[in-house]
Amino acid sequence: MTGLRRLLPLTAFAAALCLTGPALAGGGGSPAPSEDSRHRTLTSSESYVPISALTATVQANHRAQGLLQIEAGLEVPDARLRRRVEQYMPRLRNAWVTALSVYTGVNYRFGDVPDADRIAQVLQEATDITLGQEGAEILIGMIIIHPN
Question: Based on the domain organization, do 112 and 51 belong to the same domain?
Fold first, then answer.
């Protein structure tokens, strides 16, 4: 039994080394996809700013029951405002996730169909407040509830 106890940590170390070896050596695997390469091109418009997926936990009976996932983008015709959107993206993401969390906690009941109009409204309000002005229109591409 003591021989087995000594062998298990060595086996785990060897397995971890085999899995990370090529990455540590600098060769082998392909590079990780960048943030921009994960976005599908929905339009050739220069005024469209893609947003990576937004998520919020859906709760019922004091437990997580699922995950609300939204794919969206922003239509920003003004080039100056588009640059501001890119600079404010971390703040915008925080505002959107907060707004979605409030929506799932207050306005959404697990099992119902999500209200796309209400979601668009809360995301647009969060966008306008965070940027301090109007002009960046939220466009929702998909709303999904992933049950646990």
Answer: yes
